[in-house]
Request: fold
Amino acid sequence: MQSKSNPEYGFFSIGWTVLSHFFLTVCLLLILSYPVLSQLNPIENFAVCIAKKAQHFPAATKIKDDGVIVAWRDARNENYDVYAQMMDKEGNMLWQPDGIPVCDHESSQGPPILVSDMEGGAIIIWGDTRNGSQDCYAQRIDSKGQKMWEPDGVAVCIEKTLQDDFVAVSDGSGGVIVIWEDWRTGNQDIFAQRIAADGIPIWKQNGIPVYASQGDQYDPVLIPDNDGGAIVAWWDFNTPDWNVYAQKIDRDGNTQWEKPTPVCTAKGNQGSPQLISDGKGGAYCVWSDFRNDPNLFTSSQLYTQHLTKEGKTSWEKDGIPICKMSVNQQQADSVSDDKGGFIVTWWDDRDIFADIYAQRISSDGNLSWDPNGIAVCTAGGVQQIPKLVSDGANGCIVYWLDYRNDFGDITEDAIYAQRLDFSGNILWNKDGIPVCNAEKEQITPTAISTEAGSAIVIWSDARGDDYDIYMQRIPE
Reply:
C-alpha cells in the first residue's frame, strides 16, 4: 500500500484536486450565467414569449411568492388568440415555452384582462367574435396551467349587440365581477356580470344594468367594495355636457345607492374616471376635467372627489384640483398609499414637452406634496402614458414611455421608471432608471408590485422580427 507521501500518489491527488476545482468552477459559471430575472439589464430583458407573428397587449396578476401570470393577445395561429404564461420570482417559466393557449378558438379574441383566482391561478377575460359581434368570455387557469372551465371559455355575455371595453375585479370568493359597455338598448350603457369560482354566472343571463339610461355611458371602471360587490364609475353623456357618475352593486347584483351619484356635473366636459379604494367601503374618484377648456377636449386639468360607502360626496362640490397649475394635464393613473389616501401621476406640458409629475392626496382632501406636483421625470424629449403601482411601503413606483432619445428619424421609445416615497422624495436616479432601452419600439407596458420597493414590468416589444412579450424586474 502506498503512503500519501509517495510522489506518484501526490501527483494524482493534486491533479484530481485541480480537475475537481475546474469542474466546480465551470458549473458555477453555468449557474451564474443562467438568465435570472433580477440580474438582466435593460437592453437584454427577459423574453416571456417570442413565438412567430405578433404578441400584443400583455396583462398580469400577481401570485403567491412574488410570481406572476401573464396573458396576451397572440397572432401565431393567423388569427388572434389568448395565450398565458406563469413565472416564479426568479423568472423561471413554469408552463410550456411561449405560453399555453387560454382560448385558440377559430374566431378572433381581443386583449385579455386578468384577476387572481385566490388559489394560485387566474381568471382571464376577453372579447370574442365567435358569435358575430363581439361578446365577452372568461376562463380560469390553475397553477399548473390547466383549464378549469369550458375548453373555449364560459360566456360572460353573448347578447346579440356589441359588448366592449371590459374591466374586472375579484369578487373576493375566487370568482370575478366583469363590467362592460353594452348596446342592447340602442345606446351605450354599463352592464355587469359576476362569475363564480366554478365558472357559473351568478347574476341574470347576459348581465345586469349598472346604469341604462338615455344618452351614452363610456369608460367604466370599478374597484371591489371588500364585501363581494363593487363600486363602478363612468363617463356619462345624457346632458349637454359629459359628466362623471358612480354606483355601487352588492354581491347579489343589486344597486346600493338610490340613484347613481353625480361625482362631477360641472360646466364643460369630464371624462376618463378612475377609482381608488378609501379602505372604508368608499372610493376616491379621479378624472380629466375640461371645465376651463375654451375648445373641445384640447386641455384638461385633473380633479378628484371622495365617495362615502353610502354614495355621498364629502369634498367640495364637483371636486378639487390635483394640481394648482392650470396647464394641460393628461393620462392620469392612481394607486392607494395604504394610509387612507392615494397617489396620482400624469403628464403635463408646463415645460413645452410632456413630462411626468405626481401628487399625493390625503384622506381629508389635502394636497400632501408640492401644490403643483412633484417632478418625476423632466428629461429631454417627450414622456407619456405614466402608470404606477404601490411600492409596498406607502409610496409608489411610476413607469412610463420615454422618448428622450428619439430625434425624429425613427421612433426610439423606451420604458423608464422612478420610485417615490410617502413624502414625495425621489428614491432612484434623477429622471428615472431604464426598464428597457433596447432598439425599436416598446409599447403597452403594465406592471405588478412584488416585494417592497420592487415591481415587474411587462410589455410588447418590437426588437425581433415582430412584436414579442418581454418583462423586467426593477430595480435590477
